[in-house]
Amino acid sequence: MRILLLSGPNLAMLGHRDPAVYGTRTLDDLVAIATEAARAHGAELVHVHHDGEGELVAAVHRVVTGATPADAVIINAGALTHYGLSLRDALELLEVPCIELHLSNTQAREPFRHASDIAGVCSGTIAGLGAHGYRLAIDAAVALAEE
Ligand code: DQA
Question: What ranges in 1-147 are assigned the alpha helix state H?
């Protein structure tokens, strides 16, 4: 089982971003948590980070074509969640489960964060649970991929 974790814009700045919203863990810390959770399921985690929408779209295309084999995708699309229509169209092509993930509770924040362009093409969403969400997303991805 191979799970692809995609991280979008500004997530490499975790540790510098508002700790009251995003916590103090860095992206490397979160990837380590997800990697360990995947290993506990006997799965492999592959992590890809891009700040640009085009690179994220290309990473999704590689899953669709099989160039990057993956049984499930987890994506924290950062702000592209709220305006990333080309990312949305790419995610729609996936034939494997896809989980939308956010550290913060986007529904409890500014109104522009309440809408998600990608939610409708993902299997489900985990938001507001901080680093726990990364562990839970792995559990969900493995369960959905096994169905
Ligand atoms: C985020 C929420 C987004 O609204 C924001 O733009 C981010 C991070 C989160 O993980 O809480 O960059 O996806």
Answer: 19-22, 27-40, 53-65, 80-83, 85-91, 132-146
